[in-house]
Write a structure and sequence with these properties.
By secondary structure, the chain is an alpha/beta fold. 36% of the residues lie in helices and 17% in strands. Helix 12 packs across helix 13. Bound molecules: pyridoxal-5'-phosphate. The site of pyridoxal-5'-phosphate has 15 residues, from helix 5.
């Protein structure tokens, strides 16, 4: 075993018993480069992060320029820092008018935590409704709302007053009441395996929230920034969230997240108690500069092209062992009969130069979420390797 692998196993906290242990030397565009000339086509973008591709030159230039001006100077919310201001202005210009105030944080989980606190403060209520098979993060609050008892159970007690409903079940929406502070939902459930609800469902959720005075919190951490073909997935649904939650693809590879609401809603965090929601590094200037550069790149992408590339994956991945392909745009889940086949195919793909994985709550589905700049010839090559790997695994059965 290489020295670095050994050091990794000794000094970095484990998240599973079987880490992949691939050693990455560099990454560019859609490719990851390892030791000894190994390379992989990246079909997962660091889990929907590298939408603009790895080390996009505009992002690298923005990071370099800002790092040489200033990095951290003061906790979030006190000083006027132009990378934060310019980013918040550019982002909110692309969103519905009511989403005009950004609270910048460092990650998706943190953005979810902030959204939950904001909904409680604004409504004066404490019940939160979330959905089975939803993933919203690993911090205690986010963990309390994720939709899997397996993941929640070992960390109890968690937050009280959380209700989980079945996703895509209209009659379950009766649970939303005047006691509900907010409903937190993904427009397409990422970790459930790229699950897209029936037409009209998200609108029904929005209507139930409106009727009961509950805030609608849309988690676009995985689906935002053109991943599913529109700037935000909610924009295909004819609804406007009260709070929008972002991270992952936002920073073009740098860590940043946000929860965004109207100025009126957001202002409740500023007093009683004063400084009731604060962060040292939230909206780090280097990350904001990266986010602005990434935003300029993603907004030039053509949503129809992203959908076409998704279709190319679908039409190329035809095999009797592939039961279905779920999702939208370039957030796809390739379904196999069981987890065992999927994990063997994934291992074989990695061996053959395609980097992919499974979904947290759908281990029988392979994730396809490459950088959005992937080219057709790379899609064909990736699909050829997946099919070759599948053939090998099924002939070994
Ligand atoms: C939909 C969704 N929400 C929240 C999160 C948590 O984000 P982070 O890992 O940045 O805390 C994730 C991460 O996978 C996610 O997919």
């Amino acid at each position: 075993m290489s020295n670095n692998r050994q050091l990794f196993l000794t000094h970095l906290a484990p998240t599973s018993d079987a880490p992949l242990l691939l050693e990455i030397e560099s990454a560019k565009g859609v490719e990851l480069f390892g030791k000894d000339g190994k390379k992989w086509l990246d079909l997962i973008s660091g889990i929907s992060v590298s939408n603009v591709g790895h080390c996009h030159p505009d992002v690298v230039a923005a990071v370099t320029a800002q790092a040489s001006k200033y990095m951290h100077v003061m906790v979030y919310g006190e000083l006027v820092q132009s990378p934060q201001v310019e980013y918040a202005h550019a982002l909110t210009t692309l969103l519905p008018e009511s989403l005009n105030s950004c609270y910048l944080v460092n990650s998706g989980s943190e953005a979810i935590e902030g959204a939950m606190k904001l909904a409680k403060r604004y409504t004066g209520r404490h019940e939160i409704i979330a959905f089975n098979n939803a993933y919203h993060g690993s911090t205690q609050g986010a963990l309390s709302i994720i939709g899997s008892e397996y993941f929640r159970n070992s960390y109890r007690p968690l937050l009280p007053s959380i209700k989980h409903l079945d996703y895509n079940n209209i009659s379950a929406l009766n649970e939303i009441s005047t006691e509900t502070a907010c409903v937190i939902i993904e427009v397409i459930q990422g970790e459930a395996g790229a699950v897209f609800p029936s037409r009209g469902y998200i609108q029904a959720v929005a209507a139930a929230c409106k009727k009961n005075g509950a805030l609608l919190v849309i988690d676009e951490i995985q689906t935002g920034f053109m991943r599913t073909g529109n700037f935000m997935a909610f924009m295909d649904e004819n609804i406007v969230p009260d709070i929008l939650v972002l991270a992952k693809g936002m920073g073009g590879g740098m860590p940043i997240g946000a929860f965004i609401a109207s100025r009126e809603i957001m202002t409740t965090l500023a007093s009683n108690p004063v400084l009731g929601h604060i962060t040292t590094f939230g909206g780090h200037p280097v990350c904001c500069a990266a986010a602005l550069a990434a935003l300029k790149v993603v907004t030039k992408l053509d949503g129809r092209e992203i959908e076409r590339k998704g279709e190319l994956f679908r039409s190329s991945l035809v095999h009797p062992e592939i039961k279905s392909i779920s999702g939208k745009g370039l957030l796809l889940g390739v379904e196999f009969e069981n987890e065992e086949i999927n994990k063997k195919v994934i291992a074989e793909c990695i061996e053959n130069g395609v980097f992919t994985d499974w979904f947290l709550f759908a281990p029988h589905k392979m994730r396809i979420a490459p950088p959005l700049i992937i080219e057709d010839h790379q899609i064909f090559m990736a699909c050829e390797i997946i099919l070759k790997s599948l053939k090998k695994v099924t002939s070994d059965k």
